[in-house]
Design goal:
With about 230 residues, this protein is α/β, with parallel strands linked by helices. The chain has 10 helices and 8 strands.
Length: about 230
């Protein structure tokens, strides 16, 4: 349905660690069909500040109001940009460090799930995910084929991304939504609730795994559309 939103509105989807923009493939067309522009922003996953700079360059390509959507690690990235046209932030099982906190501090805040894999940097200070962890922890509710594709597409994240202290986060001044993945095996749902409440986000809990965009994309789409309706159409 066209005309629901200002014609130059754009949703920016930012991928997490061990992923690329293709992780949003089931989200893109439904948003476009509602009249929203969609960009899957690539980030290098080298440092938090470099990732934020990369996202800022993507935002420069747009001209209208923006909704930023971050999954997992990229929750820290979407909060690190400075752009007045951002109308709302959406966290999909995402990490939300406060000013001065590194991502690792919030990631390890609560007891890990037994199936959370060991994440050890290689000789280049890059962290790769074991292939079997995609079906066991990252996307255990997705199909085996989807988990296998995600494993094949994975990109590593540099250790510095999770060690660098976060700047003052944008969620302190923008409306925020948080999709809590209640069956997440990567980020403890208790941690997700803590971050969402600290942000005073609109909390939307669902019985999904760490990557709901694979197994249950509708819940992701619904949260994005809710935020878009409340913040872009005002």
């Amino acid at each position: 349905m066209k005309g629901e939103f200002p014609s130059n509105s754009t949703v920016i989807l930012v991928h997490a660690a061990w992923a690329d923009g293709s992780c949003w493939s089931k989200i893109i067309l439904p948003l476009q069909q509602r009249g929203l522009g969609v960009i899957c922003a690539p980030i290098p996953m080298t440092t938090l500040s470099e990732d934020a700079a990369s996202l800022s360059r993507v935002l420069e390509r747009t001209r209208g109001p923006l909704v930023l959507v971050g999954h997992a690690y990229s929750g820290a990235v979407i909060a690190a940009v400075r752009e007045e046209r951002v109308k709302s932030l959406i966290y999909v099982a995402a990490l939300a460090p406060d000013e001065g906190e590194p991502v690792a501090e919030v990631f390890y805040r609560d007891e890990p799930h037994p199936d959370q894999p060991k994440m050890v940097p290689d000789s280049n200070d890059l962290v790769w995910m074991p292939e079997d962890a995609f079906g066991r922890a990252l996307a255990h509710k997705a199909s085996a084929k989807q988990a296998s594709i995600a494993a094949a597409l994975q990109r590593p994240i540099a250790v510095q991304c999770v060690r660098e202290p976060a700047p003052k986060p944008l969620w302190k001044s923008k409306p925020t939504w948080y999709l809590v993945a209640e069956e997440d095996r990567m980020i403890n749902p208790k941690t997700q609730h803590f971050m969402a409440e600290r942000m005073r986000a609109k909390v939307r809990p669902h019985p999904v795994d760490h990557t709901p965009m694979y197994a249950d994309p509708k819940v992701v789409i619904d949260v994005i559309l809710e935020a878009a309706h409340e913040t872009l159409s005002a």
